[in-house]
Amino acid sequence: MELLGVSSAQSLQCLSALLSTQQEEEEDGNCENVSVCAQLGPGHIGPQPKKVKETSSAYMKKNSKDIWSEEEVAEGAHFEDLADPRPQPEYEIILKQSVGTEDLFLGLSRKDPSSMCCEAMLVKIKLPDTKATDVILDVKEKFLDLRTPKYKLGLHLPHPIHSQEGRAQFFSSRGELEVTLLMKRPMDFINMQ
């Protein structure tokens, strides 16, 4: 037993000497307050990481011959013209979902009022003093481009949509264009059942 006690005492003394010299090397000042000196944490274990020269990710090139990556160019950026003086019309985006009595009263289809259960997006664009024949509309997966002689609208959509499956209706009495777009969701087979 004594042999075990002696080796434990020697181990503790060696550990104490090791820690005290390490702390003296890291801090070149005198510490009277123990709480101020004991600021070592898990990040101090092991060798210190080398500082890497920071470079901007915009200038880093991948090992391909591409000039730009997809993240650098926003969809619809080629439609935005800063020199175009036409104003942007007022618009409103409304998310829609099809519900029946079994959804509303019984909750059988597990739909809720959140945007995850919406199937369509309605974009209402106010175009006063505009004819239906003057409207040029181009719809992409994440971008809606509308041009008239008086207005221009480049709208980044909040959700991806099916660009080929949509409907537009112009109400000349109100001077309003309503564009109904079906939303594209990767988890539709789970959310819409």
Describe the overall structure.
Belongs to the PIH1 family. It comes from Menidia menidia. With 193 residues, this protein is of the alpha+beta class. It has helices at 2-26, 34-37, 101-106, 188-191; strands at 91-96, 120-126, 136-139, 143-147, 152-156, 161-171, 176-183. The chain has a domain at 77-191: Immunoglobulin-like. The chain is built from four helices and seven strands, in the order H-H-E-H-E-E-E-E-E-E-H. The strands form two sheets. Strands 1-2-7-6 form a four-stranded antiparallel sheet, with no helix packed on it. Strands 3-4-5 form a three-stranded antiparallel sheet, with no helix packed on it. The longest helix has 25 residues, at 2-26.
Descriptive tags:
193 residues; alpha+beta; Immunoglobulin-like; four-stranded antiparallel β-sheet; 7 strands; 20% helix; elongated; disordered N terminus; protein-folding chaperone binding
Write the layout of secondary structure elements.
Layout lengths: L1 H25 L7 H4 L53 E6 L4 H6 L13 E7 L9 E4 L3 E5 L4 E5 L4 E11 L4 E8 L4 H4 L2
Antiparallel strand pairs: 1-2, 2-7, 3-4, 4-5, 6-7
